[in-house]
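Need tokens for this chain, all 362 residues.
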Amino acid sequence: MSKIVSVGTFDPPHIISQELAVAKAKEHFKAGFSDVARLLSIFRNTEIQKRYFAVPLEWFLTEHSLQDRNDTYIRLATDYSIEAIRACLRSPDFVKDEVPYAAIDAIFFVSTTGMSTPSIEARVMNRLPFSPHTKRIPIWGLGCAGGVAGLARANEYCSAYPKAQVLVINLELCSLTFQKKDLSKSNLVGASIFADGVTCSLVAGDAVETQSVAVLSALPVIRAHQTTLMPNSESVMGWDIKDGGLHVVFSKDIPTIIRTWLRGNVDEFLSNNKLAMESVQHFIAHPGGRKVLEAYRDALGISEEMTAIPHRVLQEHGNMSSPSVIYVLKEFMLKQIAAGEVGLLTALGPGFSSELMLVRWE
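Here are the structure tokens for all 362 residues:
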């Protein structure tokens, strides 16, 4: 089974407090809602304190074409991926010495907020000294679920090639998808929670000797994972792709779906691995929002304490889509969890779909 050796993160440079976001949203959305002051409670109810964005506040005040948005995405995605890779391979919290670029066999690049051909990892390879034979696996369209799914695909690769070390980059620049002319409630909700973030995870196959490399005495080892698609649920979450760019699709029913659908899915997954929810010590969840975390607790019968770290990541970063759960994983890894303890990674995304992963610290 593969080991998660290191996680690097990169926060984009523009920090916006939620109070400032409320003020700007009031000014912007007042033309679309007669009761905009009441609706702005959505921003405060998220319990988000601040978010990081790839573009300054002035960017949101003008219209942008799909080409303009995407050109910005390509440029910044390349720059930010390089920062996250460096943070991962050099992190003093996780690796004793810098992991050489030549040791990396494959790069998985996971994103849903922009498009690029050649894909971003190819552009990164032209600026960092990776082997030209490094395999490239871009993954697009998984949204918030992409954080767990990327690790799962990396685990499958390392199961086939147990001597491999691979990188998983999760990059989302949600800010670039904001639609100035879209005065819908979905766009308002998206503006209240979505943010930008980048992560890079180093995953090593079972035959890789990590004791001399890793700082942690016990590493999270990927024991199992499961993908589940809810039939005919395309309208729950995703993008409408139009001439002006990506328009958010965000159903108000997501918390209800979690409460009614997720528990059976989780129980089946854990049962297949001879475990129950009571066996899970660490709940490593994508913090999609305050109501999502509440729905997790209701559905799975877990305490508020078990969602404390996801809640803190939500407060400090907002919903970054696929990188969010990796930010949460990093916080758990920094706790230096004891060998033998079990964690459950979970994220939900377009489809509507669930991604689950079981890790054990070993």
